[in-house]
Amino acid sequence: MTRREAQVGQEDHRTSGLIRRLLKRLSDDSASKEGAHGGTRGSPVEASEAKPDRELVARQLGRPPRAFGRVVVRCPFGRPAVTEQSPYDPTGEPFPTTYWVTCRYLVAAISRLEAAGGVERWSEEAKRDPVLAESLTRATEEQRLVRTELADGKTGRDDGSSLALGIGGSANPGQLKCLHAHVAFALARPGYELGERIVAEVEPPWPEKCCLDGEPMIESE
Asked: Tens digits of per-residue pLDDT, 175-204?
């Protein structure tokens, strides 16, 4: 084994461990403890059950969410962390970002990565590293399939053209557009190597205190 292969193996191990920490299912007791560093995967919910989540997401965003579908990942405090969006909003306007980070802590942490040149750096890494390039190609195809399934035959005002866009609505999947979208995709659909490598740069993965504590309610649509 070469030094480079050993280094990649160590990176993959660290990345997989962090993703497990982010997504492992917690008991109700541990999920309620401040400072717990694990998350839970969401599951399909009925419309009546989605309303409280929608209100929480509105508080996180500071506005009513567009094209909100459901919560797919929760933080250790049981609050929304990543949501799944419909490909079209109620008016038929395209909504190209399928998975959206709502946790304010994660949003801020990823924004810092972007401000430090993260979009350009990871775009270059994806071109240079064949493993990352392959993972991006697979995730792009998966994104298109998911969007088509979520559209359920609807084509919206664009006659369905946005259903073929890549992660984060990128028309050129080889050039990353938004790290938030890639992190959200990795958390919602584990196995996306490039997204998981980006997630690994967020440490610690969760805040010590819920981002919604003490925040006022915002009326949702």
From this structure: 899 999 999 999 999 999 999 999 999 988
Q: How many CA atoms lie within 13 A of 130 on its CB side?
A: 0
Instruction: Give the start-end residues of each E strand in 60-164.
Output: 68-74, 80-85, 99-101
* Cis status, amide bond into 204, omega within 30 of 0: yes
Beta-bridge partner residues of 58: none
pTM over the 0.85 mark: no
**Angle at 124 (CA atoms; ends 1, 186), nearest 5 degrees:** 80
pLDDT digits 0-9 by tens, 82-99: 999 999 999 999 999 999
Tokens of 21: 């920490």
Q: What end-to-end distance do the CA atoms of the chain give, in Å?
A: 57
Q: How far is 149 from 65, CA to CA, in rounded Å?
A: 21
As to burial, measured by CB atoms within 10 angstroms (0-12 exposed, 13-18 middle, 19+ buried), residue 201 is middle
Classify each residue of 177-200 as buried b or exposed e, where b means 16 or more C-beta atoms within 10 Å of its C-beta: bbbbbbbbbbbbbbebbbbbbbbb
Domain residue ranges in the chain: 3-199
CB 33 within 8 A of CB 76: yes
Q: How far is CA 141 from CA 87, 94, 130, in A?
A: 15, 18, 17
DSSP 151-212: HTT--GGGTTGGGG--GGG-SSTTS---HHHHHHHHHHSTT-HHHHHHHTTSSSSS-SS-TT
